[in-house]
Amino acid sequence: VPATRVELTVSCRQLLDKDTFSKSDPLCVLYMQxxxxxxxxxxxxxxxIDNSLNPDxxxxxxxxxxxEERQNLRFDLYDVDSKSPDLSKHDFLGQAFCTLxxxxxxxGSRLEKPLTEASNVSPLSLIPFGENPGFLKxxxxxxxLETQCPHVPYWRNPRHEPPWPQCFTICHKTEVxxxxxxxxxxxxxxxxxxxxxxxxxxxxxxEVYDWDRDGSHDFIGEFTTSYRELARGQSPFNVYxxxxxxxxxxxxxxxxxxxxxxxxxxxxxxxxxxxxxxxxTQLNFTVAIDFTASNGNPSQPTSLHYLSPFQLNAYSLxxxxxxxxxxxxxxxxxxxxxxxxxxxxxDGHVSHEFPLNGDASNPACHGIAGVLEAYQRSLRRVQLYGxxxxxxxxxxxARSAATVLDGSQYFVLLIITDGVxxxxxxxxxxxxxxxxxxxxxxxxxxxxxxxxxxGDDIRISSRGKGAERDIxxxxxxxxxxxxxxxxxxxxxxxxxxxxxxxxxLLSYMKARGIKPPPIPPASPETPx
Length: 528
Fold this sequence. Notes:
Helix 8 (391-401) packs parallel to helix 9. By secondary structure, this protein is α+β, with helices and mostly antiparallel strands. The protein is built from 11 helices and 27 strands. The protein has 3 domains: 4-129, C2 domain (Immunoglobulin-like, Sandwich); 135-268, C2 domain (Immunoglobulin-like, Sandwich), CATH 2.60.40; 274-512, Rossmann fold (3-Layer(aba) Sandwich). Helix content is 19%, strand content 31%. The strands form 7 sheets. Strands 17, 18, 21, 22, 24 and 25 form a 6-stranded mixed sheet that branches. A 4-stranded antiparallel sheet has the order 4-1-8-7. The chain has a 4-stranded antiparallel sheet with strand order 3-2-5-6. Keywords: Repeat. One of its GO terms (molecular function) is calcium-dependent phospholipid binding. It comes from Certhia brachydactyla. Belongs to the copine family.
């Protein structure tokens, strides 16, 4: 299930007037590209607005937002001349391209793009609204349920996938209440999205079982409801008969196997990753690249650092795959870029924290293209050496992150490497020490040997001190899989590297009690 869903509002100003005796009648068509595909597929259309060069479309585009994917969008504008759905029958007014990340990460939650392929430049405004369904907290009790053994209700929601339109998946199981016909189950909380995925009318099935120690629980009965019905709260509408369909078919006088009554219903707001981004939180992205000799001679095609005139090497592909996504969340597009494990000029000393642009006082490069250019220049001026030490670049980012503790920035360090880490103990200590101080994520790519740093299963520790949070993500994609420009491979890498960042940002903000700031005002809109 995607992290959240966003709703886009589209407006245009100063469109071309293609009509002779009146103004244009604009229509906006949204196209999307599926991951790994260059083909554009139509997603939806707005309504037609008659006689307007400055339309504010009422129709909203509702999209699933995935932070770890590059979601390319295209907006085409037409002047509608007839009722034909065939767009070739209408006058083309222009188009605009962007990513969904650009829109949600834009200042003031408003992105303005010029319409291209038009004889004049018309601004297209895109305003996202992210739903925040929050957590549902509820409690219920049973009456006159069959048998005096413990009871366990299973809450299930439907998975609408052909050919099983009513295939339900479990989303919550209560505790066992023993030896009573009238159990009162403890209140529980569940994300609204997990319960109904934002569809307030989606069927929710509740099953009640008689618990057995050997696991062969006896089915008592079931009932269905919906979020909308539950939202009525404690009332006669939320008293449900627990029915066993088999008994109902066999026994004419069968009514039910008891009842379940809703005791309480409340929805509490849950801050999302998108709330912080729309409130102005910036992702401060730093990249560190492995310049050790284990990568091979850069002049040889077998090297991961080989600069081919025909295609990007594995390091460049990894950087592009991740950088092209995360750059949408940094407004100034200035990215510090470091190298480690090389002998650097002028004296040839080994450095594990040198700026790729050659400027130690300001290692930031403009845009991902600037990082790539600095990386290629560095390859020509340094000597690949070793060992593979991470701690210096981790500490470099930690020092920067420690100066920003208000939640306005969240620091992300991407380490691209091929070799086995040489300073594991020092790196563990650096990661453990950074967590209580600042907001930072360290998703090193691309080596399974470093899975020890990933705290998904066991939190890392150093000198008896455990890590406060899991902020390291080690993808399983081997570096050499990126030796060819295969989009699915690059996108798979980006998903692995970035997938945990939203939850890690939220865990930091929650631990520090930092709430999303109000959405900053957008820049003044172009008047109609």
